[in-house]
Amino acid sequence: MIEEAYRVPDVCKIVGISYRQLDYWARTDLVTPSVNDAHGSGSQRLYSFQDLVTLRVIKSLLDTGVSLQRVRKAVAYLQTMKKRPHGVTLMSDGEGIYEAHSPEAVIDLLNKGQGVFAIALDRVWSDLEGSLAKRRGKAATGGS
After folding, report:
1. Are 74 and 97 in contact (CB under 8 A)?
2. Cα–Cα distances in Å, from 1 out to 47, 54, 82, 84?
3. All domains in the chain, ordered by first residue
4. CA 99, 105, 106, 111: dihedral to nearest 10 degrees?
5. What is the model's pLDDT at position 81?
6. Pick from 123, 120, 95: which is nearest to 108 by CA?
7. CA distances in angstroms from 131 to 103, 124, 136, 142, 143, listed in the order given
8. Contact 79, 88 (CB under 8 A)
C-alpha cells in the first residue's frame, strides 16, 4: 500500500499553520517530513498522515499556551511510543502535558513518562456504595 503524501501548501491549510511555522519546525527537527525531506533547491517536503497528526497536536498544544520547549519534550516522548497514538488522550494545564490511558492512569510526558496519581471519584463512589450494601446485607442476615 502506498502512503499518501502531502505537500507543504496542503499541510499548512489542513493543519492551520503558516508556512513559516512549518518551515521552522522542519529546520529545527521538531517534525521532519517522513515521506520526503527537502534536499536542496527544487525538492519539496512531503508529509505523511502521521506527520499531520503530530503537527495538529503541536498546534493544539501551542494554542492552549504550552511553550514550544515543553511541546518539543512531549513530541520527543510521543515519538518513542511503540504503538500508534490512536486512542491516546493528551491533557494540558498550560504547564504540564499528560497522556491519559484511563481515569486512573495518567502519564506526565514532560517528566520522562512518570506516572501521575489519579483517582476516579465516580469509581470510589460506586465501590463504596457496593461495599456498604454488602455490609448491610451481612448485618441483616446476622453475618459479621
Report:
1. yes
2. 16, 22, 21, 18
3. 1-63 (1.10.1660.10), 84-144 (no CATH)
4. -100
5. 67
6. 95
7. 21, 10, 9, 17, 14
8. no
Other Cβ atoms less than 10 A from the Cβ of 126: the count is 11
Residue 112, sorted as left (phi over 0), alpha (psi -120 to 50) or beta, turns out to be: left
Q: What pLDDT digit, counting tens, does each position of 44-70 carry?
A: 888 888 888 888 888 888 887 888 888
- The neighbour count for residue 40, using CB atoms within 10 Å, is 5
Full-model pTM: 0.64
Question: What tens digit of pLDDT does each residue of 95-121 get?
Answer: 777 777 665 666 666 565 555 544 455
